[in-house]
Amino acid sequence: MELNAHFKQTLTKLHDAVNRQLQAALVKKEPVSLYEPMRYTLFAGGKRLRPILLLLTTQAVGGNYRDALNAAVAVELLHNFTLIHDDVMDQDDTRRGQPTVHKKWDVDVAILSGDGLVALSYEYLLKTRYPAIDQLGQLFSRALLEVCEGQALDKDFESKTNVTPAEYFKMIQKKTAALLALCCELGAHIGGADAETIASLREFGLNLGMAFQIQDDLLDIISEEKQLGKTWGSDIKRKKKTLLLIQAKKLAGAANMAQIDAILNKESISTADVTRMKKIFEDTGAVEYSRKLLARHFRRARDCFKPISSESGKALLTNLLETVVIRTN
Amino acid sequence: MELNAHFKQTLTKLHDAVNRQLQAALVKKEPVSLYEPMRYTLFAGGKRLRPILLLLTTQAVGGNYRDALNAAVAVELLHNFTLIHDDVMDQDDTRRGQPTVHKKWDVDVAILSGDGLVALSYEYLLKTRYPAIDQLGQLFSRALLEVCEGQALDKDFESKTNVTPAEYFKMIQKKTAALLALCCELGAHIGGADAETIASLREFGLNLGMAFQIQDDLLDIISEEKQLGKTWGSDIKRKKKTLLLIQAKKLAGAANMAQIDAILNKESISTADVTRMKKIFEDTGAVEYSRKLLARHFRRARDCFKPISSESGKALLTNLLETVVIRTN
């Protein structure tokens, strides 16, 4: 209980610190068509998971989180760039309950304001005082390229009938986990950790990221619509190749397989279909499998804490990991 | 004549060196949907003006061009990123005689492969061995942001009836000249120039860039279609707010103004309209004005050479400047 209060306080403190820096990063107003959509996206109420993860990592290895604030801002700017461009590619019309940039403005504005966020993100990353700053820049660039590769793989899945679990894991590792691994890596570097600790914390971030995405796939059918903030079963309705679907197809007998195909062959998938698909996911054991995998990544992530000596740092990172795994939206 | 042969030899040498590095930068093949459009754009026969400018600048201040090759590759990658994204926004269907990325593939592929090029460009920039590498990264990021601002201003012009020459200059300074100024700045830094020389060469690049864009506007109506490699008068047909149009509107009497408005109000502008518009640009003095301005930027650019002691370096940069101003495509 006390720990929880301390965690909440820390979250609030870091959240506010990040937001202040982000406000300062976006004082420029002109051209309005470039900067307004950036602000619109950045201040729509994001949880700031990535910058907070970065700052907690810096603290956990004995550093001062203030030294990592510019890098924290950089990863949040980069994350928001991916949101804007991905929403165009995924044709998502709303995010956090408001129209996406390409809906509120247009695709051109979305492309351009996304590009601008990348420029800003590097600007902030390179403000970090760190002896081998080029190394941090390389990590950042590699992660950005991986995110692009992951998104390309995800797009490729749309026209692929059979996606294997291995292909799926490779995709989410790049699309989602690479950026969370980057946060931990940057945070550990800036906090002054040794090479072994940095590698271990990168591994922590990767597992946290995998858990995050698997939980995302699960939430689509398990969470209440009100809590989720988006349509229940929207992945199913959009025929997304989630882990649940991939695994259900792998495990399904003839009857379930026929039902899956029948639903996926429909022009438009109804809420009744979603309910039916959810039952198939449960009956085939796909939900069970995903839950187990989630738990495994959770454990693996926790195992990566070994080199960290700070008990409070470890506790805070564990708390963050828990919020990712038990979150409801 | 001898100098010219030397210039041509140098161009070929640098062009080949840049191409070899670019080939090496793009060995990765998977996912095909990400890397194939990058290669397609990069190896469509670009002139490599920007990397060559960077390398010549390094040599002009007494450096070895090989030390600047990674940065040269970086600016070419960044330039190609702007081509891919700009073609989407400007709805250009062909470039260098072949379909643009969003035409050959689709808009999603264009967004993503452009994003990937930005990541690669930073990766190469940060490979440069330079004591204050963070500074080079800041210059790079500032230029990228300026290019985005310039493109945003250019897009804004589409819905603006009256664009002033001052607004136009601000736009091309950001959209076109900022990247050429960056090339000179990076080249001078890497070549080991002092602060005064760097500032002067940045100014050279800015003027070269302004001249480049004004020449681009002029070529649209002055060049032969065969030489230009694109439709004659395509700016007019697309009602682009070029310097010629802005200045013609500023200088036109009532009769010419009525003609301009009549042409611009047409749903579709014919080749006969282009011929008529070209005559108005000439009669109002807009062509004359643009030519004078071009010559002024040419002279200003040449004046920036003062701090350079290397006569051969100065000669090569002058040759490059001349090719930009007297080019026919």
What does this 3D model show about the protein?
The structure is a homodimer of 329-residue chains. The first copy, chain A, is mainly alpha-helical. In chain A, 75% of the residues lie in helices and 1% in strands. The radius of gyration of chain A is 20 Å and the shape is globular. At the A-B interface, helix 4, helix 6 and helix 7 of A face helix 4, helix 6 and helix 7 of B.
List the helices and strands and how they pair.
Two copies of one chain form a homodimer.
Chain A (H helix, E strand, L loop, with lengths): L1 H24 L6 H11 L6 H12 L8 H21 L4 E2 L2 E2 L1 H4 L2 H19 L7 H26 L6 H26 L4 H28 L2 H4 L5 H4 L5 H9 L2 H11 L6 H14 L1 H18 L7 H16 L3
Antiparallel strand pairs in A: 1-2
Helix pairs in contact in A: 1-4, 1-16, 2-6, 3-4, 3-8, 3-16, 4-6, 4-7, 4-8, 7-8, 8-9, 9-15, 9-16, 12-15, 13-14, 15-16
In summary, what is this structure?
The structure is a homodimer of 329-residue chains. With 329 residues, chain A is mainly alpha-helical.
